[in-house]
Write a structure and sequence with these properties.
Helix content: 25-40%
Oligomer: single chain
CATH topology of the largest domain: Dipeptide-binding Protein, domain 3
Number of strands: 22
Distance between the termini: 30 Å
Radius of gyration: 24 Å
Strand content: 15-25%
CATH class of the largest domain: Alpha Beta
CATH superfamily of the largest domain: Dipeptide-binding Protein, Domain 3
């Protein structure tokens, strides 16, 4: 993370001492963003016990969403990445403060060390020579070349080709050195490679269909843990990799346990069946109680994700900018944050977290004004019918909103929005579904009408959002990316290209400030707040380090241990 490296870090909630924290109101209980969170972390530091010399014990990670995608280059969601981080390795990864650390690479290439040419077009990466795949085969530069070639294979259903598509003329110089040429300079590629897991050439080469191989259900990696088993709908088990090249692992086994109901998941954490609550964490209504549980630690912080309503911009009434503007004016964001989320998150107008060096603080604040929203819809020709719902040219101002089923906090937020929007003549229908369904083709191929979703739009810690907002990144139109809202804007396409090819941070900051302005003006998303997460783990479980530069705080399970 660049910018203020402390503001985005997680704070361990200790015994409250401040009067305002003890106040018996939701706002008082949970107004702990930024400096207040740091105040809560004050207290005597305890000496950190040393990790064991050999792997010991297991950790049960409780997840409210089920991991289903185990090929780390194919489309997946945050919960899948938690598994990928432990099975696979990247060339380097990002620490919580945004510092890149070499993993499969012997060093992170820079212009200073000669790994990246001065014009940004030639990259040479030196690799470790002591890395093995889980099946015992030696890792080499051939695996890196195979991975980059597979990503760029037009027949492969890749998660993201942005950046990778610029790679040309890959040359294996030796088993521990590889070089390639970039079609154009691309500053975010360092961040992209920090999230690109390398796959084994010897396992995957020669597949008739690269999208359907045995590897998809029995993955082989170089990570700290190796695949053991999966019981669909219940759990995934991983075991320590005794030949891991990095620090750890200190655990013998990791169990990812799927508990779709957030209330049941918290109950299992409270009873001790679950050692750590991941991804969705602990629901806001249980956060205060969790803080007081004996033998438990609770962490709260801002994340890199922004909670929003993502409209399908090619669906009926939502294609009308006036409708989106009215919906945004008719959304009581403050009531939603205070009443439903206990005042934990902070409202935002941007898709970037406020900790990002590219964050634009000058975006206009949302004006909650139902009267103005009604007047805007009247002016735009949306007339109320006998039932109070508006229509224009035979199209009713009615649409579905979807999110993961079993999430009671989001379900309450949907109910509040339903009331808000009914007051301006818009009918909201709730259409929730299991995570494996909603975040599959329904989301990826823009089959939704609107979705309530938290998205980390950045590439690692980089503000480039080409995969999310470029007109060529719409999967439903054959594009490669995650522009599931189907946003199209010519100025945006030009700015995204300029921002991605500039290496001056000052120049890039100005470009991304304008990009944020366009998204806010067009309401390609209806931003609600920058997400926070409340995660709990047992008091004698050590090594947890939250990282807003990853999609999962299971990123460093190799460092976790019991003591």
């Amino acid at each position: 993370m660049t910018g203020d490296a402390t503001s985005g870090r997680w704070q361990h909630i200790l015994a409250p001492t401040r009067r305002d924290i003890l106040a018996p109101t939701r706002r008082g209980l949970f107004a702990i963003g930024g400096g207040a969170a740091a105040a809560l972390a004050a207290g005597p530091a305890r000496a950190q016990p040393r990790p064991p010399e050999k792997p010991r014990g297991q950790v049960v990670v409780g997840l409210s969403q089920e991991p289903t995608v185990f090929h780390p280059l194919m489309p997946g969601i945050e919960v899948d990445q938690g598994v990928w981080w432990n099975l696979f390795s990247a060339l380097w990864y990002l620490e919580p403060d945004g510092t890149p650390v070499a993993d499969l690479a012997a060093e992170v290439p820079t212009q200073e060390n000669g790994g990246i040419s001065e014009d940004g077009l030639t990259w040479r990466v030196k690799l470790r020579g002591d890395v093995s795949w889980h099946d015992g085969r030696r890792f080499s530069a051939e695996d890196v070349k195979f991975t980059l070639d597979l990503i760029n294979n037009p027949n492969f259903r890749v998660r993201n080709r942005v950046g990778h598509g610029l790679v040309k003329d890959i040359r294996v110089l030796s088993p521990t050195e590889i070089e390639w040429r970039m079609e154009s300079a691309y500053a975010p590629y360092l961040s992209i490679l920090s999230m690109t897991f390398i796959v084994p050439k010897h396992v995957l080469e020669g597949a008739a269909d690269p999208n359907a191989t045995p590897f998809n259900n029995a993955p082989v990696g170089t990570g700290p843990f190796r695949w053991v088993s999966r019981q669909p709908g219940d759990n995934i088990q991983l075991a320590a990799n005794p030949n891991y090249h990095g620090k750890g692992p200190y655990l013998e086994r990791v169990v990812f346990k799927y508990v779709p109901d957030m209330t049941v998941l918290y109950t299992q954490f409270r009873s001790g069946q679950v050692d750590y609550t991941g991804i969705s964490g602990i629901s806001a209504p249980f956060a205060r109680e969790a803080q007081g549980l004996r033998g438990r630690k609770v962490f709260v912080s801002s994340t890199g994700s922004v909670e929003s309503i993502a409209p399908n911009l090619e669906y009926g009434p939502l294609a009308d900018k006036a409708v989106r503007q009215a919906l945004y004016m008719g959304m009581n964001k403050k009531a939603l944050v205070d009443a439903i989320y206990y005042g934990l998150p902070k409202a935002t107008e941007s898709f970037l977290p406020s900790e990002s060096w590219a964050y634009n603080p000058s975006l206009p604040a949302q004006d909650y004004n139902p009267a103005k929203a009604n007047a805007l819809l009247d002016e735009a020709g949306w007339k109320r019918g006998a039932d109070g719902i508006r229509a224009k040219d035979g199209v009713r101002l009615e649409f579905a909103n979807s999110t993961t089923s079993g999430n009671p906090v989001r379900e309450q937020a949907q109910q509040l929005l339903m009331q808000d929007w009914k007051a301006i003549g818009a009918a909201l229908r709730i259409q929730n579904m299991p995570a494996a369904v909603i975040w599959g083709e329904f989301w990826q191929m823009s089959k939704f009408q609107s979705v309530m979703v938290a998205v980390n739009y950045r590439l690692g810690s980089d503000p480039d959002v080409t995969p999310r907002f470029d007109s060529k990144a719409i999967p439903a139109k054959g594009g490669r990316g995650q522009n599931n809202m189907q946003f199209q804007n010519a100025e945006m396409d030009t700015l995204l290209l300029r921002g991605a090819t500039a290496f001056s941070q000052a120049q890039r900051k100005a470009i991304y400030a304008r990009i944020q302005t366009i998204i806010r003006e067009e309401l390609a998303i209806l931003p609600i707040f920058q997400s926070v997460i409340v995660e709990g783990l047992k008091d004698n479980l050590h090594g947890f380090r939250a990282n807003s530069n990853t999609w999962s705080n299971c990123w460093n399970l190799r460092e976790w241990y019991w003591a």
